[in-house]
Amino acid sequence: MIIDFRLRPPFKSYLNAIMYRDLERSAGMSKRIGMEQPESVQKMDLELTMAEMRRAGIDKGVVSGRKANPHVGMVDNSDVQELVECYPDYFIGLAGIDPSDKNSAVEETKRYVINGKLRAVVIEPGVLQKPMFADDERIYYLYEFCEEHHIPVMMMIGGNGGKDIRYSMPWQVEHVALDFPKLQIIVAHGGFPWITQMIQVAYHCTNVYLLPDLFMLNMPGAQDYVTAANYILKDQMLFGSAYPFAPLGGSIQCIRNMGIHEDSQKRFLGDNARRLLGLSE
């Protein structure tokens, strides 16, 4: 089974996000990693996206709601749940949560995860209207709630995960992981560019999973992720294409050619995600 843990399809409120509002920008990001924008993105066609998934051999795409500043764009959790309900053979959903709004955050987590069809929550504290660091104690109520209810938390740490590079620093993740040792934490963008430091955090804290997504595809330092996937983080690495920024087939081909051992590839491309999300074979 192959699970793409970071896939943003052209569906409803996704189309209001900057990745679809500005296709020229998205195409430029594809070219910077040596790839071409696929037809499914150019036409913003969900059926073409699912056909691309089939050709690439991707069994499931993990789709997330988003609570961020207006420039980045919001993705409604109701749309994510609808997508999962309409296409359960293709998509697994996560709820986007604004941790700065305590009442709404808990209510939406209950509605969409505990009582709904979504399987985890996603926070992007560095791109909120009022940015926060992931280890801000004002967010701790949410970590405590999710730990208590066995809900994984994905946080965007790395890349353009904040207004400046401070929001990519790995120490944020380590602080949270140590304070909530039973909370499963997924680090989207894999802490880029602090790659070896983030690998050390995950090595130290086995409740941390790294999702390098776009930053593993023809990017500087990508081989460090490969070494981690082959050895010390075999069970803590997750594959994500970051579609629509990278084509699905091109992403899989790139991963296949990076020197990840056969057994580690199987874990990285799907087994680790399946276990983390509680999916059957």
- Reading the helices and strands in chain order gives EHHHHEHEHEHEHEHEHHH
* Radius of gyration based on Cα positions: 17 Å
Structural class: alpha/beta
N- to C-terminal distance: 7 Å
Strand numbers in spatial order across the main sheet: 1-2-3-4-5-6-7
Give a quick account of the main beta sheet: strands, pairing sense, barrel closure.
7 strands, parallel
Low-confidence stretches: none
Briefly characterize the structure.
The chain is of the alpha/beta class and 281 residues long. The protein is built from twelve helices and seven strands.
Structure description:
The protein is α/β, with parallel strands linked by helices and 281 residues long. The chain is 41% helix and 10% strand. It has 12 helices and 7 strands. A 7-stranded parallel sheet has the order 1-2-3-4-5-6-7. β6, α9 (195-204) and β7 (208-211) form a beta-alpha-beta unit. α4 packs parallel to α11 (248-256). The termini are close together. 48% of the residues are buried.
